[in-house]
Amino acid sequence: MIKIIYIAGDGRSGSTLLDAILSNIKDSISVGECHRFWVRFYEKETLCGCRKKIEDCELWSQIDTQLKIKFSEYNQDVFKQQVKEIQYYKNFKRIPKLIKSKKWQLFSEVVKTFYGLIASITGKDIIIDSSKSMSWAYLLYHLDFCDFRVIHLERNLVAVANSWKKDVILPEYHSKRVMMPKKTNILILKSWFKIKILARFLRKSSNYLYVSYEKLCENPKRCLLTIQTSIEESFEISSLNYNCNHAIGGNPMRIKIRNEIVITRKKEKLVQLNRIEKLFFIISNWFAKVFIR
Length: 293
Fold this sequence. Notes:
There is one protein chain. By secondary structure, the chain is α/β, with parallel strands linked by helices. The protein contains twelve helices and five strands. A five-stranded parallel sheet has the order 2-3-1-4-5, sandwiched between helices. α9 packs parallel to α12 (275-291). The radius of gyration is 19 Å and the shape is globular. The two termini are 33 Å apart.
């Protein structure tokens, strides 16, 4: 049985760092935000983490071919829409029923086959999936086809808000300049709170571990030992490197392979937020700690 180690949480919360750390597990493969495959592969505008155009990558091109062979009714456009529907907040609680319905039967089988193909083609039984989406995590858990472990990585709301205000170029686009979208204060707050609330469902029903990004940076050894216990996998904490990956999307494109991973606790400079915004997010973060556990 394959094992999926899934990193859940909000964007701009340190998932790239944790993903890189976990890729040091023997016989593992990092695939980044692989639920984006059905957008990124077919739009043919981005790079895979292996530095090839995603449509030319041996892994993703083989997966596309195999899905079309195995499922005669497979339609990438229909599947793309279903992936989108799964992400809707209103559908979250309905996921267990949805995947058992006739309409979603093909979707469920394709998802299970998709991850199975990642394992068989790469020869790796442990898949590091940093899709972050709580809905996708809930889907994978209820499909019940693998040893599924969830690490909920959470960063302080004020730091997340500051990061969402920055001008960031998406490095995976190879032929055009695409900026990461910025979020309004309300959208940042809404997204962060939703993730925290939805995490309750995963905490109750799966191998779930909550990890504070700040604590990971402050005391890496202690935090990583806790992670190792939770996922039941080991790696050398004192010698961590950035390894080759097939990540879909984001920061892994910036990583220089084989460089050593250095975990540091930098004091956050909240230069993107004005005083009122800082106060707004500080109070909101306090409220979440007190009332949403």
